[in-house]
Specification:
By secondary structure, the protein is an alpha+beta fold. It folds into two domains: about 80 residues, Nucleic acid-binding proteins (OB fold (Dihydrolipoamide Acetyltransferase, E2P)), CATH 2.40.50.140; about 170 residues, Up-down Bundle (de novo design (two linked rop proteins)). Helices cover about 40% and strands about 20% of the residues. Helix 2 packs antiparallel against helix 3.
């Protein structure tokens, strides 16, 4: 194998599926290459040395060989295992959610170092924080900004009037908030409370250390999540599998407040 056919990269494992008799096809997110796919040969064999380094959400250092159709992972070493994300079902599901968001919003081969850093930091937060919903909302808003879907939260998207903390409207189709005059009767526009607008603005414009100090009631969490899910589903034109699972998990184990409905 020629040297130029090999390359090294950090990667976060977004998802995997069985491929052939003993292989797996992995979707990876990297700092310099964006989203890529690669095959881990023989990883499903009990003797595989790579399997523990290529679990979902693991941050690893990889040596990859370029292939004709699919690249092949030849070496893997864990940088951050994020073990807590696999020890708690709720944390696992939130991790699947943020990974699925990246996978759905990002095309292959588009470099976005800021998004890689955001994903890496979010996986760490999901493994440690108590308010997982807040970490998810922060991730959603900053992901949307990085991939070109940043919602307008400060001015009416129609008349451009600056919106104060009044009862206004949010329209996924229009891409943000509408003042009371423009939003009333607008198809698909729903009221957004002053509290929800205040929190969304904070999450969109502040760093996480500041945002995590905010206490959000279960009712406000529910409003924020419903609003963000409507916006995300509108732009993706489909609902995410992880959201459906999280809703079912919530019903089955009786989780209340701050979880997706």
């Amino acid at each position: 194998m020629h040297r130029e056919r090999l390359y090294r990269t950090e990667a976060i494992i977004l998802k995997r599926r069985d491929f052939g008799e003993a292989d797996r096809l992995l979707t990876l997110y990297t700092p310099g290459l964006g989203k890529i796919r690669a095959v881990a040969k023989g990883i499903r064999k009990p003797t595989s040395r790579k399997s523990g380094h290529l679990e979902p959400f693991t941050h690893s250092q990889l040596l990859i060989a370029k292939g004709r159709e699919l690249d092949i992972i030849t070496q893997a070493e864990t940088i951050h295992p994020f073990i807590s994300l696999r020890e708690d079902l709720l944390r696992t599901t939130y991790a699947y959610y943020v990974a699925e968001l990246v996978d759905r919003f990002v095309e292959e081969g588009v470099e976005n170092r800021s998004l890689f850093d955001l994903l890496l930091a979010t996986l760490g937060r999901l493994g440690e924080e108590d308010d997982l919903a807040l970490a998810a909302r922060f991730f959603e808003l900053h992901l949307l900004a990085l991939v070109g879907y940043r919602p307008q939260l400060f001015r009416c998207v129609e008349c451009e009037r600056e919106i104060d903390f009044e009862v206004s409207f949010f329209s996924p189709a229009e891409g943000g908030v509408l003042c009371p005059n423009c939003g009333k009767g607008k198809p698909g526009a729903k009221k957004i409370s002053a509290g929800a607008l205040r929190v969304l603005r904070l999450l969109q414009t502040s760093d996480y250390d500041l945002c995590r100090r905010v206490h959000i009631s279960p009712q406000l969490h529910a409003e924020l999540e419903a609003l963000m899910q409507r916006y995300i589903v509108y732009n993706l034109e489909q609902e995410l599998r992880s959201v459906k699972f999280l809703r079912r998990l919530r019903r089955e184990v009786g989780i209340h407040g701050g979880e997706m409905r």
